[in-house]
TrEMBL record:
This is Gur-4. It comes from the Eukaryota.
């Protein structure tokens, strides 16, 4: 199948021409149905089975995370602490994402948000920029390939019986012995699909909001009228639409802020240690590389999805005021009633806290991403610099054991 044919199929599945925003989200939930991560079904038996499967996976995942965490803090002999910390945080992110995915579906949070977002412009922004949304969804779905590569490599190494030195023995024996390691391994792979679906929903919600605001900005650039009354009416309608969009954005922030905080707090150290492991083990065995490289690529995708997409939304929100100022049809010639309506609209635009926040600590914006990346680069440089540093005698310090 060619790339053009694949795009056509995905456009039918994800973005049907006559489908509203709810149908777009329902098509994403089809992915969850394939792996039992769908709690929107009205069938009680299906919801019960899904609950039993997911809660069992979460329980096994939490036990494994606690076991690995205990080994990190209390084990006396662990030669690969950096790897163990990465595995610990990687599994923690998968479990947290699965928990939030269940919570969003059971509470119907995403459906409520989509209803709020659809009201101001009837989803015209998404219909206008549907090709851009399709591209984002294709990129998010393609990340499942990295998960499949990671699953294939981990199961391949496990069933081959090879002793991969990058993973500490205490992790493999966390359920008693090597043979029992298959239990947390299966739970981990299942939770990874939950993680990918959570990121997909996260990106979808932020992207559709971005396109609705972009469409709104485009509309206020073209406000015009032959009379003062028609101009005042259009500005009043713009105020109403912007107020409704602001309500939808705040609702989305309420849904995503805790998830964004926890996932970014986990993504930074896991990505940092994973980069360090890859750079410090360039001459390692092939089995180690096929495990770590897909994990690294997925961590990079997850980090930039959590930060860059909301930053793009925040950037578009800040453009609304300049788009309104650029419309000379409103400001010239001077008309008192139109001017008063325009000033009233400008006062509504003074909402600097609109966007996706990290649990209220800070809005996800470009300066935040730049600062985070610079700090991460500095920390990675320090870790690599002190790798193999001599402390006086012949004793060496390996940062992978710190």
């Amino acid at each position: 199948m060619s790339r053009k044919d694949l795009s056509s199929v995905l456009s039918i599945v994800l973005l049907d021409e006559d489908s509203p925003l709810e149908c777009y989200y329902n098509r994403i939930c089809l992915v969850g149905k394939c792996i039992g991560l769908n709690f929107d079904s009205s069938n009680l038996l299906k919801r019960t089975i899904s609950s039993l499967i997911v809660y069992t996976i979460i329980a096994i995942g939490l036990y494994f995370v606690i076991s690995v965490g205990y080994s990190i803090f209390f084990s006396e002999s662990m030669p690969n602490v950096a790897v163990t910390i990465t595995i610990f945080i990687f599994n923690l992110q998968a479990v947290i994402s699965t928990i939030f995915l269940v919570q969003w579906q059971k509470r119907g949070s995403i459906h409520k948000f989509i209803h709020l977002l659809k009201e101001p412009q009837n989803g015209e922004g998404v219909n206008k920029y549907r090709k851009g949304l399709l591209g984002q969804m294709m990129a998010a779905l393609s990340m499942s390939i990295l998960i499949l590569l990671y699953i294939t490599s981990t199961f391949g190494v496990y069933f081959s019986g090879k002793n991969v030195t990058v993973i500490d023995r205490e992790i493999i024996n966390s359920f008693g012995n090597r043979d029992s390691y298959i239990i947390p391994l299966i739970a981990q792979e299942y939770a990874l699909f939950g993680w990918n679906l959570s990121i997909l929903i996260y990106v979808f919600c932020v992207e559709v909001t971005f396109y609705e605001i972009r469409y709104f900005n485009r509309s206020i650039r073209t406000i015009s009228g032959l009379s003062e009354e028609s101009l005042c009416s259009e500005i009043s309608n713009a105020i109403k639409k912007y107020s409704d969009i602001a309500v939808a954005v705040r609702s989305l922030n309420k849904i995503l802020k805790r998830y964004a905080f926890m996932m970014i707090a986990c993504s930074i150290p896991s990505l940092l240690f994973c980069l360090y492991i890859v750079f410090s083990r360039l001459n390692s065995e092939m089995e180690e590389k096929v495990i770590m490289i897909p994990a690294l690529l997925y961590l990079l995708y997850s980090f930039f999805s959590l930060t860059a997409v909301p930053a793009k939304l925040h950037d578009e929100i800040t453009k609304t005021k300049s788009a309104f100022y650029e419309n000379t049809q409103i400001w010239f010639p001077y008309r008192s009633s139109v001017y008063n309506a325009a000033v009233a609209f400008c006062s509504h635009l003074e909402q600097s806290n609109l966007g996706i926040s990290i649990w209220g600590f800070a809005l996800l914006s470009r300066p935040i991403i730049l600062t985070t990346l610079s700090v991460m680069a500095t920390c990675l440089a320090l870790l690599l610099q002190f790798r193999g540093y001599k402390f006086g005698g012949n004793q060496m310090c390996n940062c992978s054991t710190i």
